[in-house]
Amino acid sequence: MAEAAKSLFLFFTALFPIIDPLGGSPVFMAMTREHTPSARRELSWRIARNSFFLLVGSYFIGTDILAFFGISLPVVQVGGGLVVIATGWTLLTQGNVNQPTEAKENIQPDDPFRHAFYPLTLPLTVGPGAISVAITLGANVPRHHWPNLLVILVAIVGSALLALSIFLCYGFADRLGRMLGATVMTVILQLTSFLVVCIGVQILWNGVRALLEQVHFHLF
After folding, report:
1. What's 186's DSSP letter?
2. What's the average model confidence in pLDDT over 81-88?
């Protein structure tokens, strides 16, 4: 029991700061301001559900998928970092959250769930950083222990807790917005968007550094 609790704590604490549903809620609110509260709640549920399956899939079969396509984890970090940088830059330059912008118009009110997976789940919620961490955690599990009930339970419960936190933060982002006001939400959005850009740069650099280390190893 103690081992299960320790593994679950490691899984949750490793992924929660990267997913950061609290920090992502202003971004979610800005991109879904045209929706009704009920549609936003349903969209939050779909994002949480997508995030759950994405995390579980990355944990269990992420390394196998990468190996099948011959893709290394540093390459995933480089590509994912570029996507996160582009997304953060778009949000950073869109201005006030009350202004109708192209980013918000990408999600039409008459079809609020069209972008539930991309870009709201991937990469805005579960981005390449979270995926790479989930893959790394799964890769560190000894393969001769599979299938292991403890491993399966930790991944499922941990992913479910993360999905629940996403649903709560996104589903009630409108209440947070009313409580803080438009000006404060705009400031939070700008700061969060800048942090998204910085996170993307860090993910990109982690991948580039790993690739450079591989080149240095093969040359010397």
Report:
1. H
2. 78
| pLDDT value at residue 111 | 67
Q: What is the spatial distance between Cα 169 and Cα 166, in angstroms, rounded to a whole number?
A: 5
Q: Where are the domains of the chain?
A: 2-219
CA atoms of 13 and 1, how far apart (whole Å): 18
At 110 the pLDDT is 55
Residues in Cβ contact with 66 at an 8 Å cutoff, skipping those fewer than 6 apart:
72, 73, 76, 135
d(CA 131, CA 57): 9
Decide: 16 and 137 in contact? Cβ < 8 Å: no
3-state secondary structure of 146: coil
- Write down the number of H helices and E strands in the chain: 9, 0
Helix, coil or strand: residue 185? helix
162, amino acid identity? L
The reply to whether the predicted model has a pTM over 0.85 is no
Least confident of 112-116, 119-123, 137-141, 200-204: 137-141
Decide: 22 and 192 in contact? Cβ < 8 Å: no
Alpha-carbon distance 52 to 220, whole Å?
Answer: 42
